Amino acid sequence: MIDARADLAGAVNELAAKVLSQEDSLRLLLGEIIITVGEIAKRQGVSRTTFYREPWRLPNYGRKPDQESPKGWYLSTYKAWMDIPAEERRKRWELMPTRERRKLGENKCIYSAS
Fold this sequence. Notes:
Elements lengths: L7 H14 L1 H8 L3 E3 H8 L5 H4 L18 E3 H9 L2 H10 L2 H8 L3 H4 L2
Antiparallel strand pairs: 1-2
């Protein structure tokens, strides 16, 4: 720990680095981490356009419940979705009536979030 009396700028920088290193943990505790479509694509190693062909890769097939965030989903929502095996999510999608799929497809705004 840098002594603030000797090096105030160094102490402030050290404190800022500690806060930044714990930022994700703090946000997660507060329920504030939002994961966007672009971040999900990076995590899954696919392009964002993949979600048009494979909507089961996005939480709730791209639909955001209760409009959690205009940009994406809470990280906990994403993790809970990913806990469901991909085969099961795809099977549910394929069994979903066409009418319901179309309703989900009308929600194009989720694909434009970065």
